[in-house]
Amino acid sequence: MEILKILEQRFNKYPQRHLNIDFKDIESKLKKHLDTIHRMEDTGGEPDVVLMDDVLYVIDMVKESPKLRGSLCYDKQARLERKKFPPASSAIEEAHKIGIQLLDERMYIKLQDIEDLDLKTSSWIATDDSLRSLGGALFGDKRYQRTFIYHNGADSYYGARGFRGYIKL
Q1: Residue partners of 146: CB distance under 8 A and separation at least 6
Q2: pTM of the model
Q3: Which domain holds residue 89?
Q4: Parallel, antiparallel, or unpaired: how do β-strands 122-125 and 161-163 relate?
Q5: What are the distances in angstroms from CA 139 to CA 22, 33, 63, 115, 157?
Q6: Which helix or strand (DSSP H or E) is residue 167 part of?
Q7: What share of the chain is helix, strand, coil (3-state, %, to 5)?
Q8: How far apart are CA 121 and CA 154, in angstroms?
């Protein structure tokens, strides 16, 4: 099925993600990003249009962190510095290949206010340079009806931790 049709069906199925917006009004904006949106879909992200702070984004809205984006450390530096059993890639490297940015902490928390995500998984989120320079990176999840932001060594990786990304329309 054509990616634009998939997007339109998803858009209509989840109106709470983009209240008071008509698909026809944003279709031309979406068409400019179809290659990236297609890669988001192909890697399991289930992208949809999300209105956040009066700005439209296309964000990975799959219920749990995309399975095809798991077992990744945070960034290339962490992957290269890992002594034992380095992962094949990193969240930042894979996001770059797709053409998306990782959600930051503020966006991740706002997204969780719109819809409960990562109830069994977790997602790497963009980490500021000051924390990253100390070897850490941030990730988030939702447990007990509450969004949590945690830290871990940037070189860590788990099958149940992937990443969510976005493009700004």
Answers
A1: none
A2: 0.94
A3: 3-168
A4: parallel
A5: 33, 26, 16, 17, 11
A6: strand 165-168
A7: 35, 25, 35
A8: 17
What's the rounded Cα separation, in Å, for the pair 75 and 61? 22
Residue 25 CB partners (closer than 8 Å, separation 6+): none
Structure confidence by residue, pLDDT tens digits, 35-61: 999 999 999 999 999 999 999 999 999
Contacting residues for 85 by C-beta, under 8 A, at least 6 apart = none
What one-character DSSP code corresponds to residue 86? Answer: -
**DSSP SS3 for 13:** helix
Which CA distances in Å does 151 have to 1, 10, 97, 122?
A: 39, 32, 24, 11
Q: Tokens representing 26?
A: 């944003």
What is the domain count for the chain?
Answer: 1
Q: Are strands 165-168 and 101-102 parallel, antiparallel or unpaired?
A: antiparallel
Tokens of 25: 């009004």
Joined together, the tokens standing for residue 117 give 């995500």
CA atoms of 148 and 36, how far apart (whole Å): 28
Question: Stretch 146-163: mean pLDDT, rounded?
Answer: 96
Start-to-end CA distance of the chain, whole Å, equals 23
Closest CA to 99 of 18, 41, 16, 13: 41
CA distance 84 to 81: 9
